[in-house]
């Protein structure tokens, strides 16, 4: 199964929790940070995934899509000194590039 799942099999337990009304606010906080970091290069910053659906139980992970003109040209949108973003996984078939929090 590892070879067909992007990033392999999840290495931590998957926990589904009841909807948390704080999720939209948490998204907004992260969207503001991303907006400041990416300046005008972010065409859109959107809350996606199960935490974006009111009243839906979900994994308590805020999923965010950031739309840029050309995702393959990282130098055009990632701040040169950014250590807060790192590639988490790439989905080459769809052209999506996923970023995660930098490892400490």
List its salient traits.
104 residues; two-stranded antiparallel ribbon; 4 strands
Description:
The protein has a single domain, classed as Beta Polymerase, domain 2, CATH 3.30.460. It contains 1 helix and 4 strands, in the order αββββ. By secondary structure, it is an alpha+beta fold. The strands form 2 sheets. It has a two-stranded antiparallel sheet with strand order 1-2. Strands 3-4 form a two-stranded antiparallel ribbon. About 6% of the residues have low confidence.
Number of strands: 4
CATH superfamily: Beta Polymerase, domain 2
- State the helix count: 1
Radius of gyration: 15 Å
Question: Roughly how much helix do the residues carry, as a percent range?
Answer: 10-25%
Low-confidence spans: 89-94
What fold name stands as the CATH topology? Beta Polymerase, domain 2
Strand content: 25-35%
CATH architecture: 2-Layer Sandwich
